[in-house]
Amino acid sequence: MSISAKTTALILLMGLLLSVSAFFIQRNVIYPAFHDIEVDYARNNIDRVVRRLEAQRETIDFTVYDWSAWNDTYSFIQSGDPEYIESNLYPDTFLNFGFDVALFLDLDGQPVWGRVFDFPPEGGYVDLSESYLEAAVAAIAGFRQRIDTEAYIDDQSTSGIVEVDGIPVLFAMRPIVKSDGSGPHQGYVVFGQFLDEELISKLSEQIVLEFSIDPVPDTGVPASADTYTLEIIDRSTLSASKIYSIEGTPGLRATAILPREITELGKEITFYGVALLVFLCALLAVALLALFRWMVVKPIMGLKADISSISNAMDYSLRASIKNNDEIGALSREFNSMLGMIESNNTELLRLNAELTSKHQKVLEIQSELQSANAELKRVSEHDPLTGLSNRLALEKKLKQAWEILSRTGDPLTVMLVDIDHFKRYNDRYGHQAGDDALKQVAAILESAVQRKSDMAARYGGEEFLLVLPGTDVDAATEIAASIRERIIAAGIEHDSNPVEPYLTISIGVSTVVPHSDLTMEDLVSAADKALYKVKESGRNSFGYEPVETTAQ
Ligand SMILES: Nc1nc2c(ncn2[C@@H]2O[C@H](COP(=O)(O)OP(=O)(O)OP(=O)(O)O)[C@@H](O)[C@H]2O)c(=O)[nH]1
Predict the structure, then answer these.
(1) Taking every annotated instance into account, which residue ranges of this chain make up the domain GGDEF (predicted)?
(2) Distance 442 CA to ligand 1 centre (A)
(3) Does pLDDT of 9 surpass 90?
(4) Which of ligand 1's atoms lies nearest the C-alpha of 432?
(5) Which residues have C-beta atoms less than 6 Å from ligand 1?
(6) 360: CA distance to ligand 1 center in Å?
(7) Taking a C-beta distance cutoff of 8 angstroms, is the pair 421, 505 a contact?
(8) 469 alpha carbon to ligand 1 midpoint, in Å?
(9) What is d(CA 476, CA 488) in angstroms, rounded to the nearest whole number?
(10) Considering the domain 392-545, what is its CATH architecture?
(11) Ligand 1 pocket, mutate which of 389, 463, 529, 532 (most atoms under 8 A from CB)
(12) What is the rounded distance in angstroms from the CA atom of residue 468 to the CA atom of residue 455?
């Protein structure tokens, strides 16, 4: 797997991890945070509804307070004077003060005066007293028990919600006292307001929030101030409810249907956040990869191409180009330094090789000279310097070798001892130099007379020569000896002091034997010598044969 592929995989993995992390962070942290904000928002809104209802109750209570601590009301409740009603409590008074129900109760809770009006939106009013007054008194009168008559009477009041013919009525009740707040109290003033659709709609407009109310039966269990009910209706709406309690008694459940804009916003932010992150990760991955390829892969591939071309060309004087001052640049420098070392080693190697070749050449020359010298030494050591024939040393080696070979093959070995007749006289007559020349001439004739490769003509000593003829029997030897004598005569070398003939003559002693262990080489040569002696005795210029006799014989 290439570095590029590994890096791509790593970056993609990191991008994936980042995106997954972002997704889970958005889902488990940000989205729940939005949800909490939405819940707070819902609670705040339903609290606004409850506060608005409470404000409405306070308004009623404030109005009740005005009317209950008024000397005219105090007198009215005692006297029942209709003048008070006619002067103050006509329908418009209801409308102006914002109540629908007005009750003046005596200390026993019996109505001294009471009216129930409805004010339709189209104007005017409807007197509902006949239908609802009795029910309203029955529902409300009992609340006077909540007023503590032993306490400072001017501070006493009570409020509540009752249902009159299925419609909740928000009311306030206070004891009737004198204008200065003193008592004893003489009954109770109650003003109430129908919490009908019209009023709820009006209140909704005021707080810019639609809500609805439902009566809550008094179970006797006080509702907690923090009792909220939140229900998700669908993706875009939720319902928030809270019990509106008065003096600890649950009265109404206020419910608002709220848009889930915050959650939707959270979802959108989560979605777009993750999408943006994924996009940025992809962008970053592409950018990082491009950067990586440009900064790392490209220089490495460049270095690889340089190395390949240098390696293929095997030219270590070339250098890799250094384009960056970073780790890859350092690598290129190291490579170049290594090339320098290789080049220097190569040069040294070539120099050493040339030196070695030259030395080898010299050794070969010396070897050749040595061989020549050896050959010359051998030649000199085995040849006679005057005649060029083999000398005694070579002769003895030859004889020994031929003796050993022929003793195995059973072939005959002939030796001929050749001696120049009266050579002393020749020297005396012609001089020693002429003697040397004559020796050379005789040697040349002897050399040409032995034809086989295995034959040898050697200078035996002085004017004596010995011919060694392996494989030559007596007959052939006799022929050769005769031929040699004739060739010497034919040479016609003047020797006028020779008593035999006026030219140079020779005498030859021949002996032939099949070598065997009972004889020695010396026996053979001795026989030839004996034959020569006999020839010399019998007048010279001839040849003679003498068989071999063992030393023992
Ligand atoms: N010029 C020359 N003479 C040599 C050489 N070697 C030996 N001689 C001579 O050869 C002569 C041999 O003489 P002798 O041994 O008496 O024999 P000869 O005179 O040949 O008599 P016969 O052999 O009996 O016929 C001597 O005078 C030697 O000096 C040589 O290398 N050069």
Answers:
(1) 411-548
(2) 14
(3) no
(4) 1
(5) 419-425, 427, 432, 435-436, 439, 462-463, 536, 540
(6) 52
(7) yes
(8) 25
(9) 18
(10) 2-Layer Sandwich (3.30)
(11) 463
(12) 6
- One DSSP character per residue, 460-497 reads EETTEEEEEEET--HHHHHHHHHHHHHHHHHHT-B-TT
Query: What is the DSSP-derived secondary structure letter of residue 503?
Result: B
How far, in Å, is the centroid of ligand 1 from the Cα of 527?
22
How many angstroms separate the CA atoms of 525 and 30, rounded? 133
Distance CA 446, CA 466 (A): 9
Q: Under 8 Å CB-to-CB from 106, ≥6 apart: which residues? A: 77, 112, 186, 187
Amino acid identity for residue 526 in this structure: S
What confidence tens digit (pLDDT) does each residue in 44-91 have?
999 999 999 999 999 999 999 999 999 999 999 999 999 999 999 999
CA of 468 relative to ligand 1 center, distance in Å: 22
Q: Per-domain residue ranges for the chain? A: 46-262, 315-380, 392-545
Is residue 412 reached through a cis peptide bond, with omega within 30 degrees of 0 on the bond before it?
no
Q: Is the pLDDT of residue 433 over 90?
A: yes
Q: Give nearest CA residue, ligand 1 atom 32.
A: 436
Q: In this structure, is the dihedral angle defined by the CA atoms of residues 304, 308, 309 and 311, taken in order, positive or negative?
A: positive
Residue 391's Cα: distance from chain center in Å? 87
Answer whether 389's CB lies under 8 Å from 444's CB: no
Tokens found for residue 190: 């109650």
Both tokens of residue 137?
Answer: 């008194």
According to the model, what pLDDT value does residue 281 have? 79
Spacing of C-alpha 387 from chain mean position: 91
Considering the domain 46-262 in this protein, what is its CATH number? Answer: 3.30.450.220
User: Ligand 1 centroid vs 432 CA: distance in angstroms?
Assistant: 10
ipTM of the complex: 0.97
- Ligand 1 centroid from CA 422, angstroms: 7
Confirm whether 46-262 and 392-545 share one CATH topology. Answer: no
Q: How far apart are CA 531 and CA 533, in angstroms?
A: 5
Q: Which of 424, 441, 488, 506 to mutate to test the pocket of ligand 1 (most atoms within 8 A of CB)?
A: 424
Question: Which of 423, 432, 437 most suits a substitution to test ligand 1, by most atoms within 8 Å of the C-beta?
Answer: 423
Give the H or E element holding residue 194. strand 188-194
Nearest protein Cα to ligand 1, atom 28? 424
Q: How far is the CA of 506 from the centre of ligand 1 (A)?
A: 12
Q: How far apart are CA 188 and CA 147, in angstroms?
A: 10
